[in-house]
Amino acid sequence: MKKDAKFYWKLFGATFTLSAFTFGGGYVIVPLMRQKFVEKYHWIEEEEIMDLTAIAQSAPGPIAVNASILIGYRLAGVFGALLTVLGTVLPPLITISIISLFYQVFRDSAAVSAVMRGMQAGVAAVITDVVISMGVKVVKGKSLLSILVMIGAFAASWFLNINVALIVIACGVIGAVRVLYETKKKGGAAA
């Protein structure tokens, strides 16, 4: 792909519009990023966006910003990461600045409260969609270990209330051990 001014503007514009029209938190933006960067522009492969999402989720900070950094860097290096972060951060910055000017009016508005309650159901549906589609990909991968890790991570979070950061770290360690084992196994078989 040609990295000219048009490409950089498109990259910035993509993250800006995603951020401007996404409500409900970082997880909502993930399927929209997939749709934009994988399906529409074909800049990133499906598996790669899942990997970038996993990294973004496990890093500290907002997932939308983390994902935009990774996508921008993957597509256009440091400059791409800066553009995508700017595109992701500007819309909420502008929105929050405007809301803060009229905070009293928004706080006391029954209409604004009703809209926010209505949006919660939509946000829950989008997050559920992300979870199901990522879970289906893990199951379709037919890796028993990945399926067990997914079930174990869910159980640890849902039933045992274990801190999500600890679950992510444990899953990362399991993944690293798996890769080391498979690499050693392939190396041993070749010798």
UniProtKB/TrEMBL annotation:
It is a multi-pass membrane protein. The chain crosses the membrane at residues 7-30, 78-106, 118-138, 144-177. InterPro entries: CHR_Transporter, Chromate_transpt. Pfam families: Chromate_transp. GO terms for molecular function: chromate transmembrane transporter activity. It comes from the Bacteria. It is found in: Cell membrane. Its main location: membrane. Keywords: Cell membrane, Membrane, Transmembrane, Transmembrane helix. One of its GO terms (cellular component) is plasma membrane. PANTHER family: CHROMATE TRANSPORT PROTEIN-RELATED, CHROMATE TRANSPORTER. Belongs to the chromate ion transporter (CHR) (TC 2.A.51) family. This is Chromate transporter. It comes from Candidatus Gallacutalibacter pullicola.
